[in-house]
Specification:
The chain has 303 residues and is α/β, with parallel strands linked by helices. The protein has helices spanning 11-21, 53-63, 77-82, 84-105, 136-149, 174-183, 201-213, 230-240, 253-256, 271-276, 284-302, and strands spanning 2-6, 26-31, 44-47, 67-70, 108-114, 155-160, 163-164, 188-191, 195-196, 199-200, 218-221, 228-229, 248-251. The protein has a domain at 2-163 and 199-223 and 261-281: Rossmann fold (3-Layer(aba) Sandwich). It contains eleven helices and 13 strands. Bound molecules: NADP nicotinamide-adenine-dinucleotide phosphate. NADP nicotinamide-adenine-dinucleotide phosphate binds at residues 7, 9-13, 31-33, 48-51, 71-75, 90, 94, 112, 114, 160-163, 170-171.
């Protein structure tokens, strides 16, 4: 099967190249930068800015994939609140261009969405919950979801939450940021009123692979097992990585004064994905142990 991955230099994109390659798929990655950051997986790579309609549609027509996993997005939530126009251009108009290309070649589109499409008043949310975003990033992801749903193509929407994991030169996640801070012995203030689950990228990529193999369509939530506040998750991180917990102080979201509002009681119910994709997602501790072993392996290779 020929699979195109947009945003293939991102955290999820890199992991998807590794995960999907084990099934001998024909893989093509595309992203903004000149070259692929993944050099240990056989794949073709194209530089592509999905905000440009003509090159995007032309690339898809030329590649003619059966499946497009569309991960490319502007993912920094506060930046999306400030640079709204760019956020819309990448997350919504970019998705529209992907769909235009997909329609020309009859490709299935798998779109990666977020728990930020919900207002965080009564999570965790299942696949039937009614979205009501409170920030611009969430609005852009919901608008893109609506384009996918109305496209008339075969589609899957996979919603995920607080993603982290190991990748080369990837954007800092909550886990990598916290590890850096604790290792530098800096005091961190972590919100104790934002609830949800967290997701290691390996579980998300495995779920996406299953959805491809089983030819599933529709909406699936993918996330970890453990539902807790960000502060409690920070304590887990410190414990698993043997770092001092006394540097971690609980605060409220209001004290942080972030540009974008955050859904407070969020979280994704993952039962449907576990049941229909025959997969069991990791607990927070299991996922952190996996991340720790990947980090240690990377250090061994570097040395
Ligand atoms: N991270 C999370 O906590 C989280 C939670 C829920 C859902 N999601 C969704 O999951 C997906 C993957 O997230 P991720 O963490 O892997 O994101 P990521 O690491 O930021 O990767 C996204 C990739 O898309 C690229 N990109 C940005 N604008 C582009 C454009 N105009 N044309 C082509 N490529 C472009 C980025 O390039 P640059 O780095 O050069 O900008 C980056 O390589 C996203 O759709 C995100 O919305 C993420």
């Amino acid at each position: 099967m020929k699979i195109l991955i947009t945003g293939s230099n991102g955290l999820l994109g890199q992991k998807l190249l590794h995960t999907l390659s084990t099934n001998l798929q024909e893989l093509i990655g595309c992203d903004l930068s000149e070259r692929s950051l993944v050099d240990d997986v056989i794949h073709n790579y194209r530089q592509l800015d999905i905000t440009e309609r003509k090159p995007t549609v032309a690339a898809i027509c030329d590649i003619a994939p059966q499946v497009i996993v569309h991960t490319a997005a502007m993912t920094e939530v506060d930046r999306c609140e400030i640079e709204k126009e760019l956020c819309w251009r990448v997350n919504v108009t970019g998705t529209e261009h992907i769909l235009a290309g997909a329609a020309r070649v009859g490709a299935k589109v798998i779109f990666i969405s977020s728990d930020y499409i919900f207002n965080g008043e009564n999570g965790p949310y299942d696949e039937e919950a009614v979205p009501n975003p409170i920030g611009y990033y969430g609005r852009s992801k919901l608008a893109a979801e609506n384009l996918i749903r109305g496209s008339g193509l075969d589609w899957t929407i996979i919603r995920t939450i607080v993603l982290y994991g190991y990748g080369i030169n990837v954007r800092s996640s909550f886990v990598t940021w916290l590890l850096d801070m604790l290792r530098a012995e800096k005091v961190v203030r972590i919100v104790d009123d934002q609830w949800g689950n967290t997701t290691i990228v390996d579980d998300l990529a495995a779920g996406i692979e299953r959805s491809v193999m089983l030819e599933k369509s529709g909406i699936f939530n993918i996330g970890g097992q453990s539902f807790k506040t960000r502060y409690k998750f920070a304590l887990d991180i410190a414990r698993v990585f043997d770092l001092p917990v006394e540097f971690i102080t609980p605060i409220t979201t209001g004290e942080l004064r972030q540009a974008a509002r955050r859904p407070l009681r969020s979280g994704l119910v993952i039962d449907k994905a576990e049941r229909e994709l025959y997969i069991s997602f990791r607990t927070a501790d299991e996922a952190l142990e996996l991340y720790k072993s990947q980090e240690q392996q990377a250090v061994r290779i570097l040395n």
